[in-house]
Design brief:
The chain is α+β, with helices and mostly antiparallel strands and 321 residues long. It has 6 helices and 10 strands. Strands 1, 2, 4, 7, 9 and 10 form a 6-stranded antiparallel β-sheet that branches. Helix 2 runs antiparallel to helix 4 and helix 4 packs antiparallel against helix 5. The longest helix has 20 residues. It is elongated. The two termini are 45 Å apart. The N terminus and C terminus are likely disordered.
């Protein structure tokens, strides 16, 4: 099980009261008549969990004085609903096994695993495991995305242009618009396959210095090709505009002052590319206050009082952009 509470780093489990002693088993020694062990609380990211069934199993033994013992799986959802499954456990004075299973909520945002005991006595736990379908719990919910790897640009980009001529300014503007568009529309980017800030800094110096629109379009087109061809497209009709607080205007994709017909066609194909309807690495669904800290945007270093490039600030010319 993954570590979840710094007070008990060996287990990754949270004990509200009492204490845990580590050997080959976990021991709970109650300090009053009702005790709860909260085992491994996790908040999955983005679209919940891929799987149909969650199971929690293990072994336990309890001493005389324990009047009742139960195990619970509690699920929370992004819509702030919850699902609770509880079973009562046998109090035989020998090692027993338990195995509790329940269906995974469609929009699950977190899990609690509880073992609750009532009475004055000792509860010993061993071989505790959780699975989603038949995959280990921690490997199922914590997918590692390439986009979240450390970047060589985290401490600065070292991009400088000197005097910002009109052509350079236009090139930066167009590149920035395309970069922002690809971030939310290109399937390879929305899957979290690329550190999108770093991808910008890799190409910005060259594209910004393009001599004219033709050269700039060629460079942007080559840059887009790096992320693969769009093999499938789909329609995304807006059937009821009242359901949206704002509708994005992408008419600028067809601006011939910026783009050649070839590049415009390529951008529009990306606009209608078939994407995962449930997951976009950079689009975080609405969440209540307790989940707002889950975000895939990398933090920007704060100015230290000097007007210079500081972390993920794009570049500097006569001043800092």
């Amino acid at each position: 099980m993954e570590k979840a509470d710094p007070r008990y780093p060996e287990t990754g489990w949270y004990l509200p009261e009492g204490r845990i002693e580590m050997d080959s088993v976990l021991s709970l020694f109650p300090s009053d008549s009702i005790q709860t062990v909260c085992l491994h609380y996790v908040r999955p990211v983005d679209k919940g969990v891929e799987g149909k069934k969650i199971s929690f199993k293990g072994k336990y033994i309890c001493s005389e004085g324990i009047d009742s013992l139960s195990v619970t799986i509690r699920q929370l959802s992004f819509s702030e609903e919850e699902k609770i499954q509880t079973i009562q456990l046998s109090l035989k004075p020998e090692w027993n096994r338990f195995d509790i299973q329940t269906g995974v909520m469609a929009d699950v945002s977190g899990f609690h695993f509880y073992i609750r005991g009532h009475g004055e006595g000792e509860i010993r736990l061993s071989d505790l495991e959780a699975y989603i379908d038949k995959k280990p719990f921690e490997k199922t919910i914590h997918k590692r995305y390439k986009a979240h790897t450390k970047s060589k640009y985290e401490k600065g980009t070292d991009i400088h242009f000197g005097t910002l001529a009109p052509q350079i300014i236009e090139n930066i503007e167009v590149t920035g618009k395309v970069w922002g568009f690809l971030k939310y529309y290109h399937p390879a980017v929305t899957k979290g396959e690329y550190d999108w800030d770093a991808e910008l800094f890799e190409v910005l110096p060259q594209i910004a210095r393009a001599e004219n629109k033709t050269k700039r379009n060629q460079m942007i087109s080559k840059w887009i090709d790096k992320y693969g061809k769009i093999k499938q497209t789909a329609n995304y009709p807006i059937t009821d505009s009242t359901q949206y607080s704002r509708i994005i205007n992408l008419n600028w994709l067809n601006n011939d002052n910026f783009f050649s017909p070839e590049l415009t066609g390529k951008l529009n194909r990306i606009r209608f590319a078939r994407r995962d309807e449930e997951f976009n690495y950079y689009l975080i669904p609405y969440r209540s206050q307790w989940t707002r800290d889950w975000d895939h945007e990398k933090a920007t270093r704060i100015f230290n009082g000097k007007m210079k490039d500081s972390g993920f600030l794009p570049c500097s010319g006569s001043g800092t952009l």
